[in-house]
Amino acid sequence: MTEFTLEVAERHWLSEETFEIRFVRPPGFDYLPGQKVGFVDGAARRDYTMLGPVAAGHLSFCVRLVPGGRFSPKLAAARRGDRFAVTAPFGFFTFAPSPRQAVWVATGTGIAPFVAFVRAGVRGFDLLHGVRSPRGLYYREELARAGRRYRPCISGPLPDDYDGPSPFGGRVGDGLRAGWPPGDYDFYLCGRGEMIRDLLAIIDSRYEGAHVHTERFY
Ligand SMILES: Cc1cc2nc3c(=O)[nH]c(=O)nc-3n(C[C@H](O)[C@H](O)[C@H](O)COP(=O)(O)OP(=O)(O)OC[C@H]3O[C@@H](n4cnc5c(N)ncnc54)[C@H](O)[C@@H]3O)c2cc1C
Description:
This protein is of the alpha/beta class. It folds into two domains: 83 residues, Beta Barrel (Elongation Factor Tu (Ef-tu), domain 3), CATH 2.40.30; 116 residues, Nucleotide-binding domain of ferredoxin-NADP reductase (FNR) module (Rossmann fold, 3-Layer(aba) Sandwich). The chain is 19% helix and 33% strand. It contains five helices and eleven strands, in the order E-E-E-E-E-H-E-E-H-E-H-E-H-E-H-E. It is globular. Bound molecules: flavin-adenine dinucleotide. Flavin-adenine dinucleotide (FAD) binds next to strand 4 and strand 5. GO terms for molecular function: oxidoreductase activity. This is FAD-binding oxidoreductase. InterPro entries: Cbr1-like_FAD-bd_dom, FAD-bd_FR_type, Flavoprot_Pyr_Nucl_cyt_Rdtase, FNR_nucleotide-bd, MRET, OxRdtase_FAD/NAD-bd, Riboflavin_synthase-like_b-brl. It comes from Desulfatitalea alkaliphila.
């Protein structure tokens, strides 16, 4: 099952609960933007999506530390030189260009495959990123620059000093309904299963004929 060993190169925190971790890219490790690897931890496996760019000399991941979780605390505590066994890259949550407008919807670290798409040169998309606080808007400048529309959906209170792109105050489903009239879209949904379930119900009732791609993180 294990195909590669990844060696930690660097880790830095993006917020109190989320960090980016970089590994030395092993020879022969090739992947498509949006793919992930499984980190093998005894009998368990946890999947994480590469951020890209695919040609970089390192492999980067954006990881939320789940307190009390089995594996994410091990990544959070990892030091330079530590090694982890992973599967080969896999998965089908990749970007397929089409004449329809692409609308990407992420919650939390579900932003990872969209960062990979942007780093592979995809432009002109609409993106809704659902977070509890603006601190969770990782990669926002990069994403906002590349997209046609970038709409943070912030469900918690907005701090007085917030100076980011115009936010929607609420969940991504409500943000979608408020800002995207019925039309011809390709939806890409990534993150919490609950968000994906809610969005599928909205898409079924409001965006007839839309194409939908989903990636559930947990
Ligand atoms: C295809 C795929 C790609 C993924 N890519 C990423 C990624 O790029 N970055 C990333 O951070 N995670 C990603 N995940 C989630 C990751 O695989 C783990 O599930 C997560 O890190 C928790 O693992 P754990 O062992 O620490 O917690 P566990 O011991 O598995 O879980 C403990 C509890 O926390 C809940 N939980 C799990 N994940 C979260 C979360 N993010 N927030 C809140 N509660 C949670 C679980 O439901 C469970 O109740 C991905 C999952 C899948 C299936």
